[in-house]
Specification:
5-stranded mixed β-sheet, 348 residues, 10 helices, alpha+beta, 7 strands, 3 domains
């Protein structure tokens, strides 16, 4: 509502000096009232005095300011030749005193709500930071024991290969599959926790080059599924190349994963005003209309996608990356005909 730098920063304004300025403004308004004999025109100048004192000095000085302003207004009104009769004088004074009190009460209420909101925001930021640190630390620490379990399970499977113990072989395969799935989940969680909103301004990056590297990573998977990935011209933007690569990796990977025929993926971008709109179009299984927002929720997997491997973190990571740069992400889809994921990034 008012600038917070008035009593913050390296150069602080003394409360006494601030009070003196407000009183000077109030008496100036009072003088103009008396000199011009036009009360209504200068009523509005009393309001900032009450609001500023209440906001920065507290409710008690604010209440005293209400009393002072009401007194000044009454004196100005009672100036010789101003009031027609006492009834009008007391009525106008009472109405203005009430209005000044309402301004004081509303300012106090808004100030308290603002302080509460700032406190909750700080608590939320601290809680989010702790959760991200915990998620990253827990995921990192779980990698080592998982690798050990996987190693022993693979050794057990090798020993059971020629022994004829089919039950033991089946158990070892189940262990290996579950450990690998858990490893994928932990890596996805690490990626999600690693997306930071506060980072230094990155250098301009050729997104075509980033996408080409991501497509190269999918080379063997694309050959296996006979996928065709087409990338149109992409802009040069100031984004973190690692985050941009992770963003396109998740979206292209999803387009290939959730497709029951030969994948056809088209990547394009178009400039619209102060932002670029990117699109990744596929011919996969699609997403029901009622579930288009749920796919971006952390750990959320749709019923139609339960049979496909994945952690349910990829699209949440994409949303977090896009929002880091002030963009937005959404999906348009027809079940059975494919999906198109859109996201925006600022042009400057």
């Amino acid at each position: 509502m008012f600038p917070k730098t008035l009593f913050s920063g390296k150069q602080k304004i003394s409360p006494i000096f601030f009070t003196f300025i407000i009183l000077a403004i109030s008496f100036l308004a009072f003088f103009l009232d008396v000199a011009t004999r036009n009360l209504i025109a200068f009523d509005i100048f009393y309001f900032p005095s009450i609001m500023l004192v209440t906001w920065y000095l507290g409710s008690r000085p604010g209440f005293l300011m209400v009393v002072l302003i009401a007194l000044l207004w009454s004196i100005a009104q009672s100036y010789e030749g101003y009031s027609a009769d006492q009834r009008t004088f007391f009525l106008d004074s009472g109405v203005h005193a009430f209005v000044f009190a309402v301004i004081f009460w509303l300012t106090t209420l808004v100030h308290k709500k603002t302080l509460l909101l700032e406190q909750k925001t700080k608590e939320l930021a601290r809680s989010n930071l702790e959760l991200e640190l915990f998620a990253g630390k827990a995921a990192h620490d779980l990698q080592a024991p998982l690798a050990t379990i996987l190693g022993f399970a693979e050794l057990l499977k090798e020993k059971c290969e020629g022994s004829g113990e089919e039950a033991m072989k089946d158990f070892s395969e189940r262990i290996i599959n579950n450990v690998r799935r858990m490893s994928v989940f932990i890596k996805a969680l690490l990626n999600y926790a690693g997306v930071k909103k506060s980072e230094p301004a990155p250098s301009p990056v050729e997104l075509e080059k980033v996408v080409k590297e991501v497509i190269d990573d999918f080379h063997f998977a694309a050959i296996e599924k006979k996928a065709e990935i087409t990338c149109g011209p992409l802009p040069v933007l100031a984004v973190n190349p690692g985050l941009a690569g992770l963003l396109f990796q998740n979206l292209i990977g999803n387009a290939m994963k959730y497709c029951e025929k030969e994948p056809r993926i088209l990547i394009s971008a178009v400039r619209k005003g102060k932002e670029w709109i990117f699109s990744i179009q596929d011919n996969g299984i699609g997403i029901p209309e009622k579930s288009r927002e749920r796919v971006f929720i952390l750990f959320e997997k749709l019923e139609t996608r339960q049979k496909y491997p994945g952690s349910g973190i990829g699209l949440a990571t994409c949303q977090k990356i896009v929002e880091c740069y002030g963009g937005r992400i959404w999906v348009e889809s027809k079940p059975g005909e494919g999906s198109t994921f859109f996201f925006t990034l600022p042009a400057a």
